[in-house]
């Protein structure tokens, strides 16, 4: 039996209206607190209701516009080093990752890029400020992961993480009401990212019985939520649970070829990460349908038996049909091109780490060409 390590928040609040716990948390232990957030949140009704009481508890705020670059994090660190004791992050995955990276690097002496996986030359320590993470999307699971994703599209052209067990936010507040008002495409992109986390973690060769059970629970939540994300409070609650479980299971079991490719695309093109993963998922399911690998076939049979037994003969085909037939936004139809030189870079750098199958360059190219037009 493969051993399993699960690292989670010290406190996790879940449920509609749970953001109301933020103010008492800050008031119970007054500290110099910096807010990382996004424009959509600060222009919305929830922030408007909180602002009068929240603002006096903060020393400032930073607005995150997109996936943070090493250069942006270095500027935030220079601005706030020695002034901050705690970080609150309210927003999507990019906001949470930026806040987690800042909280760690404000406690480290060197520039961000020196500590990044893939390109850094220094080992990061576990020193970090405490983080309270409040997601306003349901996809990345960043509120419960050990890593902070950083994207450098200018210098190194790499998308990589800072990673340490201490970087899991101390507190997570999961309020499904914060998904209200999100465009259908954002809900769909984030939800399919959550599914991909759960699915790849389930299929991982490093998964344990515990992580697989958690993945199956999360996939069940996804299947229940996916058709009615735009109209159902129950669906949004279910997808927020799926996202959280995806964060836990990807940390426990790792991800596979979809994210191995998606990370390299994200370093070259400013496409929504969830949409990239969703588009790669579809040709991956076609590969999986044809797979003769015994462990993959056994895992897919078990997944079907547990979640949709009437479709147990062709589980990958069923998932392909279910996802495309019930999508509230057709994430696979937008024109998102790649060029030939980008394709070559992606094939050179991508991998199928944690997968039972080591996917060849030809198989990965088939997935990419099935998901993106090549110019």
From TrEMBL:
Residues 188-307 form the Fe-containing alcohol dehydrogenase-like C-terminal domain. Pfam families: ADH_Fe_C (PF25137), Fe-ADH (PF00465). Keywords: Oxidoreductase. Its EC number is 1.1.1.1. Gene3D superfamilies: 3.40.50.1970, Dehydroquinate synthase-like - alpha domain (1.20.1090.10). GO terms for molecular function: alcohol dehydrogenase (NAD+) activity. Residues 11-176 form the Alcohol dehydrogenase iron-type/glycerol dehydrogenase GldA domain. It is an enzyme of class 1 (oxidoreductase). The keyword Isomerase does not apply. Belongs to the iron-containing alcohol dehydrogenase family. This is Iron-containing alcohol dehydrogenase. It comes from Serratia aquatilis.
